[in-house]
Request: fold
Amino acid sequence: MSRLEKSDTFKLGTHTIKRLGYGAMQLSGPGIFGPPKDPDAARAVLREAVTKGVDHIDTSDFYGPHVTNRIIREALHPYPDDLVIVTKIGARRSADGAWLPAFSARDLTQAVHDNLRNLGLDVLEVVNLRVMLDTQGHGVVEGSIEEPLTALAELRQRGLVHHIGLSNVTPTQVAEGRRIADIVCVQNHYNVIHRDDDALIDDLARDRIAYVPFFPLGGFTPLQSSTLSHVAARLNATPMQVALAWLLQRAPNILLIPGTSSIAHLRENLAAAELMLPADALSELNEMARAT
Reply:
């Protein structure tokens, strides 16, 4: 894929946005629980992201809980007209920070109202229904999502939500979800090594539906690979920039939301949008995934 063939934008709902955005998860405290050590630094990262042209921020009111959304509001409200804030519901936090499923209609309604209040919005642009497996929020599980998704669709009909997405779901659940509601994005675990969703990404690309990888850089266990390091050294880039650039070249419907609490790291991530991986580098990275 040449630079001319790599589009820098893709449609999310009714908005055309840049494909490299920002994930706000790391703006809360350790374990995504409680306040950050330096709230001023967290607000500064958000302002820098918007200054650098980021128009897609991913968040959730269960980050903290409530902490990250309040920081976003403090830093950026009133929001730029072109800024798309995407949130997710389907979980809550216990007093000790455990992740608990929250799928009832009452839970989902409360979560939407919490997001609206803490973000300072009258309507949420995109809400992802996050399917939880266990108390740590790891993995995916088969099963019908009809009941919670129908409840979320009703909230959209009430004018509280513009668009609906799905998160942490299987291809079967995506198919079921698309029969129930218009799905504008799918947010799943995917990166240059973790590639279980290859076929799903291609299917969604054909239908112009956005795919948003979480843990694009490995998440709590950052990607480590000699291949990544060797490719990065040849291209005068960092391994993480190579990992992000690979995702941007993997499919035109991939939207990235790498997170950080550091302005320097934010700038490094955003620079990946300018990195074009040559064919030999792509071949090496794809072979690395197959070997893994």
About this structure: The CA atoms of residues 57 and 109 lie 22 Å apart. The chain has one domain: 18-291. The first helix runs from residue 39 to 51. Residues 1-5, 134-138 have pLDDT under 50 and may be disordered.
